[in-house]
Design a protein that fits this description.
This protein has a 13-stranded parallel β-sheet, covered by helices on one side. It has a five-stranded parallel β-sheet with strand order 2-3-4-1-5, sandwiched between helices. The chain is globular, with a radius of gyration of 30 Å. Helix 4 (about 85-95) packs across helix 5 (about 115-125), helix 6 runs parallel beside helix 8 and helix 12 packs parallel to helix 14. It is α/β, with parallel strands linked by helices and about 725 residues long.
Length: about 725
């Protein structure tokens, strides 16, 4: 299936076969088992015959597939819109009087204009170098082919006395021989400086083969590499001789200028009647030059009426498909998806669940990937850590972008470019990955046996037959009626809907792994929650729940238990965080990774039980009495993997007694939040060398100066003191 999936883009018949296999893999489980087995055997026999007839066709079609679409981004004139500032910066870098060989990676998503920028810089500076070369390192080219091309562009002869004099190998079919030849040739030319452009780099080992062929001579040579792979650029940044330039989208002013020159070739200005729809179309392009140019070309061929332009605006997904007016954009952008590792394709397709321009919190997305089974276990890492690596790779490949950046430079929320979102929606529809409901009454169009269902507007009636659905999202504020027809559901995310009571039907969803009722008005959780033995994430943040039933202890697989709310009216008040009460036997939930915020008032035994939660990465405690501080410290000592600790005392005047942790604090702790009176500043804090953030609120420290204790922490990035 993975092999066929990689080849399906090249032949429609392969797509049909894959869809047939996937449909059979998700047969409804409501039929008698004997009939089901017989039906599956019959269908698989047919599929096998179909597969055999497609095997030979797959190998021939893949060899002829187009892998690289050349693109020149310009406005049709001598001026290339929005390029002057980055061009000046790169030219200054290339001409800097520095003897070292310097390398610059130009990084950005496809269609952003990396090649155009590099070409402008190349044409400007090449006359200042003794020799120069422009080579293409796209996905379809081999390392040997790229090195042969580079040797030719640099003027190295294929044979002759010079090669013999340099002691170069004569067999250029071998990669090592090519690398040695390049090295000897450049060593011979060591007094002459060169500039090389490596365009469209896809793989690190290609750059490695070039890098290891460069002699160690200080002659002020320069190399510029364009790539959509920011992860490769970062991994190659070994010293200060390698820089990275992240190319940014066009500003709205530059985007309008470029669009108007393309769409209105005669006047170069947008008519007043089209300004509103023109602005809306440009917002879809999000400053991407490729999208702006292709959109402008398409609209320049249409009647200049609001009606015609609105049709294009509303049918972008169709225009991006083969044969559509934006198919070239589709080819360029979809190349990044096509060559993704198999496990990352599903992770990226998951962005189709969320509406366009709707940033998703990083942690939420990773938990959802885990619940869906996309994240695979790796020895020595938690699933959450592996999921974070998946996300970082997708960001590095310029497929997912960070919207909000946390103080430690990690994404807080993420999303995808609007045009990429349209492509993802198109692929998601073809693969029957996710069905989106974006209009009132659209629930009647669910005949395609959707596996994932995302309701993004209005009310939705779930009383119909939806036993094929494994994942359900409600991303609107409309009402959702949950019935007993979701028996195979694994993910239920209905945060933000008008919900006052816990839907009783949920406790019959025994396969559920992820349940989010965040931002609803539910007040209590039934004892029958204990039936959800597969549950891994239970999100009750910003609800009115203050206590969980004893049956929650049966959820042995639970990893994330989030039950707290913020008093948004007084976020800086002492009691701004409202926690929950939990069973004194909480220590039975040994798989918990995140637990917040637990009410500790008069819960001495529960505090002692926390020592059994050795897998915790984040712990939040509220209403801690002074006499329980020592017990909490003893429990925390057992949490060797703890990364974040948030402790609030019983009230402003109640001291936080945390000195008992002095001998063995959690050494990997990165975030520490203490709210309450501190008689002395905890000495153990100064030993937390991984600490990046510390917040002390209402500490009332008078004699101790925390700055002195914290000044030697090498990774501390944020210190907040509120008295």
């Amino acid at each position: 299936m993975r092999d066929a999936d990689a080849k399906k883009d090249h032949d429609h018949r392969i797509k049909v076969w894959i869809q047939e296999v996937r449909i059979q893999a998700h047969l409804k489980m409501r039929h008698p088992i004997s009939n089901l087995i017989q039906d599956i055997n019959t269908r698989l026999a047919t599929i096998k015959k179909t597969k055999e007839s497609y095997q030979s066709m797959a190998s021939t079609s893949s060899s002829t597939a187009e892998t690289n679409v050349p693109l020149i981004i310009s406005d049709g004139g001598d001026n290339i819109v929005g390029i002057n500032e980055p061009k000046s910066k790169l030219v200054a870098w290339a001409m800097e009087p520095n003897q070292k060989l310097k390398v610059l990676f130009v990084v950005g998503m496809p269609g952003l204009g990396k090649t155009t920028l590099a070409r402008c810089v190349f044409e400007t500076v090449k006359e200042h170098f003794h020799f120069h070369a422009w080579i293409i390192a796209s996905k379809s080219r081999t390392k040997s082919g790229i090195l042969r091309s580079l040797l030719g562009k640099l003027g190295c002869p294929i044979s002759g006395s010079l090669l013999e004099e340099l002691g170069c190998p004569t067999d250029w079919s071998d990669l090592d021989n090519l690398m040695q030849t390049l090295k000897n040739f450049l060593q011979h030319k060591r007094r002459e400086r060169y500039v090389i452009i490596v365009d469209d780099l896809w793989a690190k080992d290609v750059w490695d083969s070039i890098k290891h062929s460069l002699p160690d001579v200080n002659n002020s040579s320069r190399i510029i590499i364009t790539t959509r792979r920011g992860d490769i650029a970062n991994s190659c940044r070994e010293d200060d001789s390698i820089d990275i330039h992240k190319l940014q989208p066009l500003s709205m002013v530059s985007a309008e200028q470029l669009f108007n020159k393309i769409a209105f070739r005669r006047s170069g200005e947008c008519s007043s009647a089209l300004k509103e729809v023109s602005k809306s179309i440009l917002q879809k392009c999000e400053g991407l030059p490729l999208g702006i140019i292709e959109m402008g070309r398409l609209l320049s061929s249409k009647s200049a009426t609001t009606y015609e332009w609105k049709k294009i605006h509303d049918s972008l997904e169709s225009e991006l498909k083969n044969g559509g007016g934006l198919s070239n954009t589709m080819k360029v952008l979809s190349g990044s998806y096509k060559y993704l590792p198999y496990h990352l394709k599903y992770c990226l397709l998951y962005m189709s669940v969320f509406p366009e321009n709707n940033p998703v919190k990083r942690r939420r997305l990773i938990r959802l990937w885990i619940a869906e089974g996309f994240v695979k276990e790796e020895r020595g890492k938690t699933l959450e850590e592996v999921g974070e690596e998946y996300l970082n790779e997708l960001v590095g490949r310029s497929l997912i972008k960070a919207h909000e950046i946390d103080f430690d430079e990690r994404p807080f929320t993420v999303g995808v470019h609007a045009l990429m979102h349209r492509i993802i929606l198109s692929v998601s529809h073809e693969e029957n990955f996710c069905t989106t409901v974006c209009a009132e009454g659209a629930e009647g169009n669910l005949a395609g046996k959707p596996r994932r269902l995302s309701v993004q507007t209005g009310n939705f009636d779930l009383s119909q037959d939806l036993t094929c659905v494994r994942t359900f999202f409600s991303l609107s504020s409309g009402k959702v009626s949950i019935g007993p027809n979701f028996r195979l559901l694994k993910v239920l995310d209905i945060q933000g809907i008008p919900l006052g009571n816990f839907p009783s039907a949920i406790t019959d969803l025994v396969l559920l792994k992820y349940l989010s009722l965040r931002n609803t008005s539910i007040r209590s959780i039934p004892k029958s929650l204990g039936k959800l033995r597969q549950l891994e994430t239970f999100d009750l943040k910003q609800t009115l729940v203050k206590k969980l039933p004893e049956s929650v202890l049966k959820l042995a697989k639970l990893r994330h238990l989030l039950v707290y709310s913020y008093n948004m009216g007084s976020i800086v008040s002492f009691d701004s965080v409202q926690g929950f009460s939990v069973s004194t036997n909480i220590g039975a939930m040994k798989n918990l990774q995140k637990l917040s915020f637990v009410r500790a008032k008069r819960q001495h035994r529960m505090i002692q039980e926390l020592k059994n939660l050795t897998q915790l990465r984040k712990l939040g405690i509220v209403e801690l009495a002074k006499e329980d501080g020592s017990s909490l410290c003893q429990s925390i000592k057992m949490m060797s993997n703890l990364l974040s600790l948030d402790v609030n005392s019983l009230n402003k005047s109640e001291p936080l007694e945390l000195d008992s942790m002095a001998n063995n604090p959690p050494r990997f702790l990165q975030r520490l939040y203490l709210k309450g009176s501190l008689q002395t500043f905890p000495k153990w804090v100064s030993s937390l060398h991984d600490l990046v953030r510390i917040r002390l609120k209402w500490s009332s420290l008078s004699g101790d100066n925390p700055i002195e204790a914290l000044q030697d922490l090498p990774n501390l990035m944020e210190l907040q003191l509120i008295t």
